[in-house]
Amino acid sequence: MIDRQKRQLPLQSFSLVVGFMVWVLISALMPHIRQDIELTDSQIAWVTAIPVVLGSLLRIPLGYYTNKFGARLTFMTSFLLLLFPVFWLSVASSLVDLLIGGFFLGIGGAVFSIGVTSLPKYYPKEKHGFVNGVYGVGNIGTAITTFSAPILAQTFGWEQTIRIYLVLLAAFALFNFLLGDRHEAKVDAPMKEQMKAVYRNRLLWFFSLFYFITFGAFVAFTIYLPNFLVNHYGLTPVDSGLRTAGFIALATFIRPVGGWLADRMNPLILLMYVFAGFTLSSIVLAFSPGIEMYTVGVLTVAVCAGVGNGTIFKLVPLYFSQQAGIVNGIVAAMGGLGGFFPPLILAMVYQATGQYAIGFMALSEVALASFVLVVWMYFQDLRNTGNVLNKSM
Q1: Buried (b) or exposed (e) across 178-198, using 16+ Cβ within 10 A?
Q2: Which end of the chain has less Cβ packing within 10 Å, N or C?
Q3: Domain span including residue 270
Q4: Measuring CA to CA, how many Å separate 127 from each of 8, 198, 274?
């Protein structure tokens, strides 16, 4: 068990890195793609957001199938399937090509559900927050692509840059085949039965809302910043890619800190700070500040997103120990969808008003509502001394 445990955490974490590297290919390369394929601002918003759709919805079945077949087979199959949309994008010449390829590119974002379902099987519950936080560092894949892809595209062109990812996907499909755990514990309860057991539980939808904001903000800013910084502040594609990579890196590397803190203190108190921070930083961004204050606001969002992401997946197995796979999938799916809508809403708000203030104020209001819900959950736990959360503290 020890050898398998030591191998699975790095293998699955690096596999997540690759999945997320592929997931954000279009948004990272959009400043270069739009030079060859004529796109309106509205079309760009759809093209950069479309990978999030499948990357969100597919998380539910991937969480279920990870429990049924194991992470080895699920990761390997996902990477082999990704070869087709990546190649399609490398020869894209129209909006339709970008939409089709981008939609199936979402498989790269969906693989997140694999590790959060598989890895807790190898560790005691006292370490689940930290382990899922370490796995979540795989989000750094979005930073790697956001920073490196524009630089490679300047030298090799965006089409050839995309083809490089075909080699990476094939390599990690092979790594999972050779090094993945063939004997991972399986859970073969039908998906329909698991859904019936959880869908009426309001805590499932609370956690989904919380992750909709925390991970949704991470994804939304990841796909929204590269093009926004070029158009709004006049930065070069490389400079905007570097700044976006900084946002991603901060949100990613602070995620294990959030998981570690959630293992050592009440996770609900931690979430109170998270949503208070989201509320205040969104208000700052709503006033369209200069690049300095905008940077402060965005980095505050990064910290809150990272800590919140690490905390929420500590809570899920505490409340849903028997249905962790399907609940992880649902919560992760809602987080992904949280990254789909904001860029589109921001684009529509900007077209209608010429500014982004209303969109950011909407984020602050939803974060404030989540803060109130967390406070309510906290006092409910204080009343109910038999709650699993109180037992775990």
Answers
A1: eebbeebeebeeebeebbeeb
A2: N
A3: 2-392
A4: 15, 24, 21
Phi, psi of 106 (to 5 degrees): -60, -20
CATH number of the domain where residue 15 is located: 1.20.1250.20
Candidates 138, 78, 135; CA nearest to 108 is 78
Among residues 137, 165, 136, the alpha carbon closest in space to that of 149 is found at 165
Task: Say whether pTM exceeds 0.85.
Answer: no
If you average pLDDT over each of 233-242, 334-343, 345-354, which comes out highest?
A: 233-242
Q: CA nearest 371: which of 210, 215, 259? A: 210
Residue 94 burial (10 A CB sphere; 0-12, 13-18, 19+): exposed
The tokens describing 231, both together, are: 């158009």
Q: Are 373 and 207 in contact (CB under 8 A)?
A: no
Q: CA 186 to CA 393: how far, in whole Å? A: 29
Rounded distance, CA 279 to CA 102, Å? 31
Smallest CA-to-CA distance from 324 within 313, 334, 335 is with 313
Token pair listed for 25: 């290919």
Total domains, the chain: 1
Long-range contact pairs involving 158-166 (C-beta distance under 8 Å, separation at least 24): 158/29, 158/32, 158/33, 158/36, 159/90, 159/91, 160/90, 161/29, 162/25, 162/29, 162/86, 162/89, 162/90, 163/86, 163/87, 163/90, 165/21, 165/22, 165/25, 165/86, 166/83, 166/86, 166/87, 166/90
CA distance 268 to 372: 11
CA dihedral 94, 97, 100, 106 (to 10 degrees): -100
